[in-house]
Amino acid sequence: MKLLFVHDNRFIEHEGDHLTVGNITSTTWKRFLPHVEHIHVVARRNEPDPKLDIGRLNQASHPRVSFELVDRPPYHRFEQGWRTAYPILEANIKKADAVVGRIPSFLGNLACEIAAKQGKPVAGEIIACPWGSMWHYGGMKGKVMAAREYIRLRRLIKRLDLAVYVTSEYLQKRYPTQSKTAVASNVELLRPPEGLLEARLERQKTPPKPLRLGQIGSLANHIKGWETGVEATAELKAAGVEVVYEILGAGDPEIARSYAAKFGVENEVRPIGTIAGGGPVLEWLDTLDLYIHPSRQEGLPRSVIEAMSRALPCVCTPAGGTPELIDSNCLFEKNNPKQLAQRVQTMLGDPALLHEQSRTNFERAANFYIDHLEAHRDKVWGDYFASVRKRLGMPG
To answer: Strand, coil or helix: what is 162?
Structure first.
């Protein structure tokens, strides 16, 4: 069986390999390859940036996976992007036996729509709500796109043969369907080393100086709310808290530095760019005292789950499915730096709460360990592709 996988993830071609700053890596294909012979990926091309350290990127290549990368204009040039992508997707879908789109995404949505029109078996991994991301895309055009993409996704999901949601409730309520559904997180974590929780609890016995806050999120847009983190850092500094706020992610670091300078925290705010996924990210998380996530839009935030797996207390907005992960007393309103700073100060002043949140988060993160998820995910996709083979008259 030939599977076509489509998403807006950006890949870089380098010396015969495909690399990515995103979270679709070579391990992603493991959920499909036991059930199909080959995967063809259609995704976005990312031209190498001279400032980008290739060694810090994630490997996406696999012997049974091929790539076709396309240039896609931004969402505000939707029609131009549609004319470019449609014939590419249409031709690939005709050659495929089944299609999986990771949605919402420009290419993923379009591929699922074409596949449904062609009568091809089509499944979707629903990872986010487009309303939040489009609403914060910029100006009135972004808000118009938010309404359009929200309605479009609601219609699209009803046309899927299988809808795999990353949340337990949030996305299902916003994008319901009568088709077959499943819940399977797209987060994959290795089990942490023995003694990690105990080391975190021991560290918390000494008041941190400086307090090390961190967040994973791109500086290239406003979706992850890093501006709220900067302003909260200023609030903490004004309250006499010695603090450092590190931002891990793509985008021009000068954007964050310039914004921090407006609030007098240019020395406290430290954008550190991208690093390879997996071990390096987890090691960085281990250097933090608190993980903050002032995001304006989410599906089920991978970065928060990674932080939880390192026994970090987390202070987050209730964006998307985040309340399925984090206790309500550790949530704060979107775009509210004062409340974020207050939550952080409450944590600092209550060692028992710090300990409790470290234990709670660490225990909840166990639900996302690879060995815990693999059996469930294998059954979801195994059952689906078995039904596709039966539908197409292929041997089992």
So the answer is: strand
In sign, the C-alpha dihedral spanning 38, 42, 48, 52 is negative
Which residue in the block uniquely carries the two structure tokens 């903490």? 236
Looking at this protein, which amino acid is placed at residue 184? A
Determine contact, residues 92/69, Cβ cutoff 8 Å. no
- For residue 245, give the H/E element and its range: strand 243-248
Give the Cα separation of 127 and 129 in Å (integer): 7
Nearest alpha carbon to residue 323 among 169, 181, 188, 174: 169
CB-based contacts of 39, cutoff 8 Å, min separation 6: 3, 4, 5, 29, 32, 33, 62, 64, 65, 66
Tell me the longest C-alpha to C-alpha distance in the chain: 70
If you count them, how many residues does the chain have?
396
| φ, ψ at 395 (rounded to 5°) | -65, 150
> 210: cis peptide before it, omega within 30°?
yes
Report pTM.
Answer: 0.83
Q: Are 169 and 324 in contact (CB under 8 A)?
A: yes
**So what's the pLDDT on residue 315?**
98
Residue type, 182: A
Interatomic CA distance for residues 153 and 130, integer angstroms: 8
Give CA–CA dist 344/312, Å, rounded: 13
Nearest to 258 by CA among 237, 227, 292: 227
Residue 76 confidence (pLDDT) = 47
* Chunked mean pLDDT (size 10), the chain, 396 residues: 96 90 87 96 83 77 96 58 88 98 94 97 94 66 80 95 95 94 86 94 94 94 93 98 96 95 98 85 96 93 96 96 96 97 96 97 93 87 96 89
Helices (H), 1-77: none
In the chain, the N- to C-terminal Cα span, in Å, equals 10
CA proximity to 372, closest of 167, 166, 188, 183: 188
Beta bridge partners of 304: none
312 within 8 A of 291, measured Cβ to Cβ: yes
Q: Which of 319, 137, 128, 339 is nearest to 222 (CA)?
A: 137
